Amino acid sequence: MPRGRSRPMPWRSWASRSRDFHLLRPENEVLAEKQMVRVLFFLVGLIALALGLAWLIDRPGDVTLNWQGYRIETSFLVGLGILLALAAALAVAWKIFSSVLRFPSSMSAVSRARRREKGYAVLSRGIVAVGSGDARLAGKAAALVEKLLPDEPLALLLRAEAAQLTGDYRAVEAAFREMTRRDHTRLLGLRGLHAQAHRRGDLELAHHFASTAHDIAALPWTATAVLERHVAAKDWQSALAVLENSKNIIDGTTRDRQRAVLATAIALDKEQTAPDDALRLARSAIKRAPDLVPAVALATRLTARGGGVRKAAKMIEAAWPLAPHPELAKLYLDLRPGDSNANRLARARILAKLLPRNPESRLALASAATTACDYKTAREAMLPMIEADERPTARMCLIMAEIEEAEHGESGYAREWLERASRAPRDAAWIAGDVILDQWLPASPATGKLDAFIWRRPDERPNAGGEPEEAFFRPIAAPAEPTLLIEQSIAVVPPENQAGPEPAFSTNASPAMIGEGAGAKASPGEDKKQGPLAAGSPSAAANDPEPEQMPKPGWGC
User: Fold this and answer.
1) 3-class DSSP state for residue 62?
2) In terms of residue numbers, what domain contains 37?
C-alpha cells in the first residue's frame, strides 16, 4: 500500500452498519421511518385482501344450512360476510358485557391511581420540606403520605426524617424499627437504629445493629462501623480480619493504609514479647504505607537491635523524603551508640542532602552540629528557618539557645532565646481533631477512628490582646566577642578607699569567675611587697593570664 493513504475499513455486515447508522440518526427520523413501515404493511395487507376477494369471486359457490326444518341457501360470499358480521357482533357484545362486569374494579383502580399519584406528590413535597428544614410541613406530609401510601417504604423514611427535625427521637426509632420488619427496608432501618444508638452513646447497641446489618449484606458503612468498634476495643486482630474480608467494599488505597496501621499496632504490642513477628509486621506495613513513621521507626529499632545497622539506616534514608520526622532523625543519628559527635554530624548531613529545605533536616543538622561544636554549620542550618518564620517554634528557639550557650556560655542571647521558647508556637505533633499527642496512636481515643492522627503543627491561637508579641519580630543581633570574666571583675570592683591599700579582687569571688590563671590567694607578705593591684595597673595586667589560658565558655569543645 502506498504511503500517505489510510487503510480501508474492514468489511462489516450490512446489519451492523445499518444498526450503527440507526443509532446516529435523530429521533424524529426514526419515528418517521416506523410510520412509513406501518403504512407499507397496511397497503400490503389491503392488496392481499383485495386479491383474496377477487380469487373468491372467480370461484363462486353455494352454502346450504338445514336446521329445525328450515333450509337456508345462499352463495359462499354472502355466507362468509354473514359469518364475519356475527363474529364482530359477538366481539362487541362481549366487550360491553366485560366492561359492565369490570366497572366497579375499574373505578376502584382509577381511585387507587389517583390516590397514588396524590401520595407521590405529597411525598415529594415532604422530602423537599425535610431538605429545607420545614418541620411543620414535613410532619403534615408524612402523616398524609402514610394514609395515601401505606405500603410505601419512603413514607416511613419521611416520617423518621420529620420526627428527627422536631427532636422526637422515640418516633424516629419507631419508624426505623418498623422498617426492620420489612425485607426490602431492613438494612435502611438497621442503619437508622445504628445512628440513633451512636447519638445516645450506646456503643454496644450500635455495634449490634452494625453487625446484624453486616451479616445481611457487607456494605461500606457496616464494615466501617464494625471496624471502628474493634479498633475502639483495641482488638487489632479482629479489625484486621474485617479489612481482609472487605476487598470489594472499601477503597483499595484506604484499605491498604488501614491494614498498615493495624499491622503497626500489632507490631508495637509484640515489640518486647515477639520481636521477630513485630519486625515482620512492621516491614509489611512499610510496603503498604512507606510514609508511616511509626512502622519505619519500629522496623529501624528492631533491625538495629539485631545488628543490621546498615539496613536500618537504609530504611530511614528511604522513608525520610516521604515523611521527615524528628523520631526518625534521632534514630538515624543514634544508630551506633558509641559513635562520636563527628559521625553523628556526618549522618545529619546525609539527611540534609535528602531534603535540603525541610525544617526537620535543618533542625537535625543544627542539633548534631551544636553537639559537635560546629557552631557555624549549626547557625547556617538555623538561619533560613529563623528568617523565613517570623514566629519560630519552641524547638527552633531551644536549639538556638543551645547554640548560644554552647558557644558563648550563659549569655543574654541564650536567655532571650529561652524566653522566646516559652512563648513560641507549638511544634508539630500528632493531631486528631482536638486531640494533640506527642506519641502516635493507631486510632483516636475520642472518636475511635482508625488512622486519625496526622503529623502537623497545631493551629495557633491569637493572644488576648490580638497583637503579635514583639520579641518574635525583633531581630537578634549577631553576638559580639565574649569579654573575659576576669577583666569584667577587675573593671567592676573599684577601690573603696583611695587612701589605704585594698586588694584588687573581692574575697567572695569564686575560682570559676576569676579563672585558674589567677592562682590562689596571695600571702600577706607578698601583698606588702607588691602593693595594691589597682584596676588597669601594669602590675595587674602583667599578672593577668593570657586569653589562651582562660577557660572558654560553653560545653568544653
Assistant:
1) strand
2) 22-57
Task: Dump pLDDT digits (tens) for 300-326.
Answer: 999 999 889 999 999 999 999 999 999
Q: Could you give the residue ranges of the DSSP H alpha helices within 133-185?
A: 135-148, 153-166, 169-180
- 465: confidence class by pLDDT, cuts 50, 70, 90: very low
Q: Do the domain assignments include residue 47?
A: yes
d(CA 345, CA 332): 11
Cell 513477628 maps to which residue?
277
Greatest C-alpha distance within the chain: 183
**Closest-CA residue to 393 (of 420, 365, 366, 427):** 427
Whether 27 is in a domain gets the answer yes
Structural domains counted in the chain: 1
User: Would 444 be classed as within a structural domain?
Assistant: no
Contact status, residue 287 vs residue 434, Cβ threshold 8 Å: no
How many angstroms separate the Cα of 15 from the Cα of each of 8, 10, 19, 21, 25?
A: 19, 15, 6, 10, 15
Report if residue 45 sits inside a domain: yes
Reported as a single tens digit per residue, the pLDDT across 501-556 is: 333 323 333 333 223 333 333 333 334 333 332 333 333 333 333 433 333 444 55
- For 380-416, letters b (16+ CB in 10 Å) and e give ebbeebeeeeeebbebbbbbbbbbbbbbbeebebbeb
CB 550 within 8 A of CB 515: yes
